Amino acid sequence: MKLGQATIKDIAKELNVSLSTVSRALKDYPGISSETKRKVKELAEKLNYRPNAIALSLRKSKSFTIGVIIPEVVHFFFSTVISGIEEVAFANGYNVILCQTNEKLQRELSSIEAMLDNQVDGLLVSYSKETEDFEHFTKLLKQNFPIVFFDRVPEIENTVNVTVNDFKGAYDATSHLINQGYKNIAHLAGPKNLTISRKRLDGYLAALQDHSIKQNPDWIIPCPIGTQEESFNFTKKLFENGKIKPDGIFASNDIAAAGAMMAVKSLGLKVPGDVGIVGFSDWQFSSMIDPPLSTVSQPGFQMGEKAISLLLEMINKKKDEIWSPKTVVLETELIIRKSSEKINKI
Amino acid sequence: MKLGQATIKDIAKELNVSLSTVSRALKDYPGISSETKRKVKELAEKLNYRPNAIALSLRKSKSFTIGVIIPEVVHFFFSTVISGIEEVAFANGYNVILCQTNEKLQRELSSIEAMLDNQVDGLLVSYSKETEDFEHFTKLLKQNFPIVFFDRVPEIENTVNVTVNDFKGAYDATSHLINQGYKNIAHLAGPKNLTISRKRLDGYLAALQDHSIKQNPDWIIPCPIGTQEESFNFTKKLFENGKIKPDGIFASNDIAAAGAMMAVKSLGLKVPGDVGIVGFSDWQFSSMIDPPLSTVSQPGFQMGEKAISLLLEMINKKKDEIWSPKTVVLETELIIRKSSEKINKI
DNA sequence: AACGTCACCGCAATCGATTGTGTTAATTTT
DNA sequence: AAAATTAACACAATCGATTGCGGTGACGTT
């Protein structure tokens, strides 16, 4: 109303026909004379008529809106995923409602409530670090409400997920360090309750094992907060206190890797050479730091595209059709830069 | 319906009362016995009743949704602004619909259409690089539709804007370089049709003038694309071709600054020392590159907060009240890091 | 006994659009 | 000429909630 937008009623009144005639004329239904159709369409054009999406949503119980729940917007990987989501949504006439949880469970819960109130047709979720119970998701899934989880996927049944191959990414990164001559590799791990953290840890461990390197529990350092400062401090401690010092670091994300790199450099050690470092995610800055950081790139944009494509499929199924649980795994790519160059090259 | 969500009708039928009674009971209207209120509320609780926001939107011609139109999601500054927007929106019970234009005018136009169809209560806009005509905005503004422009604000009348003090930021950055001993300063400028580019250019020029340094038109290099490669190439050319070479670079954004830094280093020049560099925006990576980049930080989060606060004010005015045009200017802060250290310190 | 008051609640219009089911009138069929 | 068909349109229910107004009893008042 604020826009004084013309409605079907305005057209009907102006032309002295009924609402239904206008509605049908606009959509070329049979049973309306071509003369009437012409007049209706002309007037609609003239009044700049545009159907009220809210009214349609109410009528059809479908909002053409999907909700996206992510931990943080200001995060290179997640913003890339959002970008992919937005592209496909836009191309398909869907709207994207965004909520960030700031890694808080409480916020996750209320965001979901808000989105359901707004009748979103489905949800794309990457849950928060605090989330350990998935009741709020299973409740919805039981009611056949479409949800696709991406990146951080819960270990519950009958879900549709999109992840990257975290295990292989971590395995490749660690193996790469080993092949470059770095044998004493520490791991800066992510929060324990995230599947991705565990998978990356597993990949790291598997790589060590396959190269007959014994793991050192002291060298697996969880970084629950995820800031650069955190990894800087942990890395500094690790190198200052240990009897045997690591000569390689595989970090579960680039921020941690960058912090570690600074810590190592601040101790007068050379990267690469004294210490080789590989991160995870290929953030924008990773190629710009000194030395440029080797890392495992995740196809964020594709992940977004894939996730929403799956969601749209689910949404557009007949309501009696049940979708089958599945997990799409996207492959990572090891990006080799200077930070992991061979020891003897230096 | 997908959720089998309970409606007011369900409650009414179950309790054998009318719809209006249920509605009023739920909102503690007078004229309903406390006994009835109790029963209604109990059943509502039991059925997990939640009002249908779509129905409310239709009834009230208000969707509690605002649209955000930005050039790119994967952009540190913009994602920070989004974060600020989302926080305030969430706190006030508003939803945020997001569209990115990818710097395309066509996309901007259709995004606005889509948002209006969805009855957003207002728009937050940072327009695309392609946008030179603002007809699509003035049309809405004439109809008193609430719009707040942020960062990239159009030079048209009667708008409400939030910007940073680009002029002063640029002036400070350039003056800083001069004070550090760098007198021959080139400027990597932004796209010409953006006000922010012009303001930053003006600040740069004013600083030169105030220090009695003559400007060199060849040293003002527009970077319309905005990639690191672009500024890398332009900077390289600049240093290879010029007779007199610059010893300072003020870039209108950090990406360009980073590209310039790489170009300068690739030519064997030292940063700082041979060349001092200052960027603009304080991207996440700026403190991590080598040398850490001096830059002008923009309060993105605050900008988002302020922009949506203004928008909500406008939305909640009585419809006959007219808001007055205004521009809120947020101050920048010069962040001094190593890339602009004094010449003689080296 | 007749009337007023008040508590409590229901009816129906409304928001904008869709759609199944009438209802006309003209046209065709027999 | 009467009956059947059909084109072209209107009516009204519907989606879920809100809200002005009207209605119905149970009281008290005079």
TrEMBL record, chains A, B:
It comes from the Bacteria. Keywords: DNA-binding, Transcription, Transcription regulation. The keyword Transcription regulation applies. Residues 6-60 form the HTH lacI-type domain. Pfam families: LacI, Peripla_BP_1. InterPro entries: HTH_LacI (IPR000843), Lambda_DNA-bd_dom_sf (IPR010982), Peripla_BP/Lac1_sug-bd_dom (IPR001761), Peripla_BP_I (IPR028082). This is LacI family transcriptional regulator.
